[in-house]
Fold these 3 entries.
Entry 1:
Amino acid sequence: MFVAPFSKRALAWLIDMHVSMIALVFAYVVSTWGSNNHGGSTATVITIVAYVVWWMVGFVNRCIWMGRTGQSWGRRFFDISLVNERDGKPIGIWKAFIRENTHFLDYFSLGYGWFRPLKDPKGRTIADYLNKTITVEGQPPHQPVIVADPAGVADTSTSPTKAEV
């Protein structure tokens, strides 16, 4: 099992964010058009609908698709998957939502969380570490993820021990 390289993860994230930004620009344009051409409550409704569509584009991409299949649009483009460390399966919609909201720690750590994958043998951000997720090459393996460290010794910290069995 190979951990996805930082470069693929970063580029996949850029694709995901640009898709979301396109939806945001669309929401802004529609909101401005609604404010200029319609007054009062009609403009407010147009604005709310436009921004809900923007939010839904991000939610579907980063929570529903990534939760169900392990791949967002960007991850699918680079053939990498987000999986649960213990069983190698996609993490589910709810956990993907929690993980996305845990990324605030990556921001509040003054960027350390985003560059942590460069030093972590499993390539995890703070949000990945807290949610027990890992990004791997290819499709979700549907088996426990055991990653070899740089010295070639397998890291079995996520595998069940005899005491856990």
Note: DSSP finds seven helices and four strands in the chain.
Entry 2:
Amino acid sequence: MTMMAIAGGGQGKEAEVRGVTLALRRLILSGEHFHNTRARQLQLGSSDLVALAHLFNSGPIAPRDLAAMMGITSGSITAMLDRVEKAGFLARTNNPEDRRSILVSITSAGQDAIQWLYEEFDASIREALTSLPGLEAAKLETALEVVSAELEAGSADQGPVRSLHPRQPPRRPHGI
């Protein structure tokens, strides 16, 4: 189901859908600001907090798998894990199924930090939504699930868009 199907389809709804997409863009940016502010309060980087959230939700995981989930390199994940482990929010242990590898897991301090983050987020959303008279929460939840699924489907790795890269020199015709 697409945004147009949720909005009722047709050309008459196009302006309404555009307004919703702009509001969702603002929501995403506000969410990122909220996340970055909470990361600073915990004296972590933004990506550090993302890694902790992955560990909170998935349990112990190999560093290479966490790096793949986050779309970062092995060098970046190692530096990040060093930093977050030093802060006491995660631990590295030997993998009981493969002695050649390690697993990264969240510590109780890390669990407390992510639980606090989620409680802060939930409180902000609850306050905003309860202030809206006539809000049909079930319809909003359905719409957000559909939008989320569409964004997930659209974020499959398709490689860089070279024609939009600002550092890419313009192509010259052959023979020049």
Note: The chain is about 60% helix and 10% strand.
Entry 3:
Amino acid sequence: MLPTFDENGLLPPGIHVADTWQEFASRFGQTSHRQSLLLGMKSALGVLRQARCQMVYVDGSFVTSREHPDDFDVCWDTTGVDGDQLKQLAPLLLKVDKGGWDAQKLKYRGKFFPTQVIEGGSGKVFLEFFQIDKTTGNHKGIVALKLREIWS
């Protein structure tokens, strides 16, 4: 079960696993706007799953108490991913620059980052970068989805 938000509307520090898509969608899809974001996310996650991605991590205002998040941020684990298949199915998910992220946001309503790529400003890999509150510098929580399990 996913933990409750802290006094700042964030998840407590750590990686919190949603056992099913239903659990995740129920927790973070409370408004029609959030449900629209979930549709885009689910579309891209289906493609990542086809390319053998096993784990993604969801961050950004989407996994906070914010009522109207602009988008979502997903960090996907590259371990075991068939890059050739992903390039065929959704080459946009391999774009790791501002132009690529802007295009991802248009198509999927959110942005996708490989876990092992370094975030330029911090020098941390995206998986670590996602767990730092950009406002305070404090640690915060993110949500993990095991793609092989959430839809089985």
Note: The longest strand covers residues 141-146.
